[in-house]
Specification:
The protein starts with 17 loop residues before the first strand and ends in a 7-residue tail after the last helix. By secondary structure, the chain is of the alpha+beta class. The longest helix has 17 residues. It has two domains: 178 residues, no CATH class; 111 residues, Endonuclease, Chain A (3-Layer(aba) Sandwich), CATH 3.40.960. A four-stranded mixed sheet has the order 9-12-13-14. A three-stranded antiparallel sheet has the order 1-3-2, with no helix packed on it.
Amino acid sequence: MADEWEPVARRVKVVMPVHIDEQGVAGPTPGQARGPKWRRTSAGLVVPSPVTDDLVEQRIVEATSRMRGGAVTGWASLRLQGGGYFDGLARDARSRLPVVIAAGGDRVRSRPGVRVRRCAVQEDEVVVRYGVRCVIPERALFDEMRWAHTLEHRVISMDMAAAAQLTSIRRMGTYAREPRRRAGRGDVLWALEHCDERALSPQEVRLRLVWGKVCGPSRLLCNPTVLDSEGRFVGMPDLLEVATGVAGEFVGAVHRTRDQHRKDVARADRFRRAGLEPVEFVGADVGDEALVAARIQAARERAGRNARGWVVAQEQGLSLDDRLDARDQLEARYGDGRPRE
């Protein structure tokens, strides 16, 4: 089971920077701004000193306060539109990623914490979130994927955007194939072939990609509902290799509690009783390809001795594309109803 996390970022409160005002009307005077009650965010702009930029949304708002005709793109745009995975931190979970701005005709410049890309911004692709001009999810994700250096980064970005219901694989494919999408289009389309909208955590995605790399092509299902031969619920493994009955599980920090460990043991027992063979991995394991290959092969051999007493339940409910289409129809009729401030 994946770590507990929020695919959709919760709405938070941000404070917009204000200009230093000689008269002290629209903002603090220069003298006040130099005092302990204010914190400078950029030249001529401040926020009250209790407001920190530890909150990623606040950091994005401050980084873009001088932007006029451009728009935020990449991870920062996806975050402001609700992408929980896009927390603005690098793989080490400490280093801050720069906020990327598609400049269009804006004269904004790169500075610490802000990276400016000199690329066009179409006004029909701009929405306002938290008072910030952002490109739509498809454009933001296209940029995030095409500027990424690895297939893993591209696939995780797509899968986590889907987990947040920002866009779908089909929509991204359509967007990338538009004639004006040239630079990086091939990398995006290639990555989409490896994506899965049912992924629920980045570590699941990493395990799935490594599994396919070291063990060869195989049909892997993400978070399928497994029933026993009598139709009773067995569980939802992170990954299921249908041909062999091997159930891959990523064991994150949330599994270290006593209650969760007890649930995990009971679930593994249900899997085995139904004929599945669970195999577990922690974060450090996923980076060791030889270990992953050996552990999966051993699980396949054990699974070959099991009597198959399980089936994969058919998916119920609307697909992601159906949900997005329905949302678009409601927005066209009533507006999207999402706060802009």
